């Protein structure tokens, strides 16, 4: 039987880490490797060892060269004459998060695991203050949290 420290070390290797990244002046497609877990030494295609990624400030991403006008995103509704083409600049004006989402979606492997990986991605168009951990709150603040139910004084649990 393996020791507890060895088991915990093994669990820590596969544990998902949360990355909080600033997207200001960054290329939009460089984050797919973090979602897949390619940077981990235990990476395998069939194992789920990717991390969670939160990208703030996607409104200010950067493309190199003339990609804002040359890169075209296309879609089709399935009806005749409904083939839509939009440049990256037009799409970014309409939805600042969509370019990052489409770039990362295109870089992920084309299999059923792709949807699970995309659920680990959070995009925020503007910078937001990161929330504090629960152990960083004072005792007064934790007592002021809203509660659904408070047990009575004589409540006893097994």
TrEMBL record:
Example GO molecular function: structural constituent of ribosome
Protein name: Large ribosomal subunit protein uL13m
Family: Belongs to the universal ribosomal protein uL13 family.
SUPFAM superfamilies the record matches: Ribosomal protein L13 (SSF52161)
GO cellular component annotations of the record: mitochondrial large ribosomal subunit
Classification via InterPro entries: Ribosomal_uL13 (IPR005822), Ribosomal_uL13_bac-type (IPR005823), Ribosomal_uL13_sf (IPR036899)
Organism of provenance: Capra hircus
This protein's UniProt keywords: Mitochondrion, Ribonucleoprotein, Ribosomal protein
Coiled-coil segments on the chain, per record: none
Region (Disordered) residue spans: 124-143
GO BP: negative regulation of translation; translation
Subcellular location: Mitochondrion
Main subcellular location: mitochondrion
């Amino acid at each position: 039987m393996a020791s507890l420290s060895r088991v915990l070390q093994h669990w820590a290797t596969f544990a998902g880490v949360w990355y909080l990244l600033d997207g200001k002046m960054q290329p939009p497609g460089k984050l797919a490797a973090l979602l897949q877990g390619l940077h981990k030494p235990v990476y395998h295609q069939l194992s789920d060892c990717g991390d969670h990624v939160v990208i703030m400030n996607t409104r200010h991403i950067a493309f190199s060269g003339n990609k804002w006008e040359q890169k075209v995103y296309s879609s089709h509704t399935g009806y005749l004459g409904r083939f839509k083409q939009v440049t990256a600049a037009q799409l970014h004006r309409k939805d600042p998060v969509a370019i990052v989402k489409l770039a990362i979606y295109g870089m992920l492997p084309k299999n059923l695991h792709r949807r699970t990986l995309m659920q680990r991605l959070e995009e925020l168009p503007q910078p937001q203050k990161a929330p504090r951990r629960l152990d960083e709150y004072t005792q007064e603040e934790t007592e002021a949290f809203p509660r659904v139910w408070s047990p009575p004084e004589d409540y006893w649990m097994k």
